[in-house]
Design goal:
The protein has 326 residues and is an alpha/beta fold. It contains 9 helices and 18 strands. The strands form 4 sheets. The protein has a 7-stranded mixed β-sheet. Helix 1 runs parallel beside helix 2.
Length: 326
């Protein structure tokens, strides 16, 4: 595919911002390829002090002594010139957060490759990991995609699949997909340079969009089915974290487990309102849902740290109390 390039030691520009991208950058740094520049979003306020903090990708790049560029937009001619000056063979993009104009897409000889955390065309867009869990998908994975001007519409060079665990949170799935994406990238770069991979056009059927998460989505309504509540709690860990009101206080709910239907006596629950805490177990708070029971395992009072259910309920008589929607 590429003339005059050493496919075993490519000059790679890398664009990414959060930890998902940093895992791929780590793999590139450890490889035979030469990371010539890293692009990441400008430092953002973080923490209680709201001090400017570098992204995970910027921290990794600085530790490795790689030059960092932080343009607020890649439509800026000066930003494009700075990127062009490094002479990269390929630009690898992972959760960067800025739009790449056509001038940037066309800049490297091998174009721009994106690591995307879903099985395209399902879950194009900003939050594919969380949306897959919310939808109850059994499978997900990563795609290495040749970028074009559309939103995650480019041809797929490599796909890797994995199963989503029944109790897996977005945080856990994120880490597995980040590692899978980094490995898939390593399997792609040199092979694509040599023309050994066939780009597959995404089908028009099965397209879905993973909209950004909102805090409002994380408010639990215990009249919903157990399976839906369990998916919400898993999908919103670590952000924005599922929440409900208990004794007039905003309680965050970090993890849960479903109570099997065969263990639920429907008749015994008939007179109990959804949201009612029916039993305090050694490791969980068992709560009535719209169609059964759910065990809440890790919770958080306002101003406190996340606690196991036993510690969360310690010193409080919570049985019979009810979780309500905020």
């Amino acid at each position: 595919m590429a003339t005059g390039m050493n496919c075993d030691r490519l000059k790679v520009a890398f664009a990414g911002t959060p930890e998902f991208a940093a895992v791929a950058l780590d793999a590139l740094i450890a490889s035979e390829h030469d990371v010539v520049v890293v692009l990441t979003q400008p430092d953002r306020p973080a923490g209680r002090g709201r001090k400017l903090a570098p992204s995970a990708v910027k921290q990794r790049a600085l530790e490795a002594g790689i030059p960092v560029q932080q343009p607020s937009s890649l439509r800026d001619e000066a930003a494009q010139a700075a990127l062009a000056a490094v002479g990269a063979d390929v630009l690898v993009v992972a959760a960067y957060g800025l739009i790449l104009p056509q001038a940037v897409l066309d800049m490297p000889a091998m174009g721009c490759l994106n690591i995307h955390g879903s099985l395209l065309p399902r879950w194009r867009g900003a939050a594919p990991i969380h949306r897959a869990i919310l939808a109850g998908d059994a499978q997900t994975g990563v795609c290495i995609m040749q970028m074009n001007a559309g939103l995650d519409t480019g041809d797929v060079l490599l796909e890797r699949q994995l199963a989503i665990g029944e109790d897996e949170t977005a945080a856990q799935l994120h880490d597995r997909l980040a590692a899978l994406g980094a490995a898939a990238l390593m399997d792609t770069l040199s092979a694509h340079c040599r023309g050994e991979l066939q780009a597959v056009v995404q089908p028009e059927e099965g397209v879905s969009y993973a909209e950004k998460l909102s805090k409002a989505e994380a408010r639990l309504d215990f009249s919903a089915q157990t399976s839906e509540l369990h998916r919400q709690i898993r999908a919103f860990n670590p952000w924005p974290v599922a929440e409900a009101s208990l004794r007039g206080e905003r309680v965050r709910i970090w993890s849960s487990r479903q109570v099997p239907a065969e263990d639920v006596s429907v008749s015994a629950l008939a007179q109990i309102a959804p949201g009612t805490l029916v039993e305090v177990l050694p490791d969980a708070l068992r709560v009535r849902t719209g169609d059964g029971l759910i065990d809440l395992l890790q919770l958080q009072w306002p101003g406190k740290k996340m606690q196991d259910a036993a510690v969360f309920s310690q010193g409080r008589e919570l049985q019979g109390e009810a979780f309500t929607t905020l």
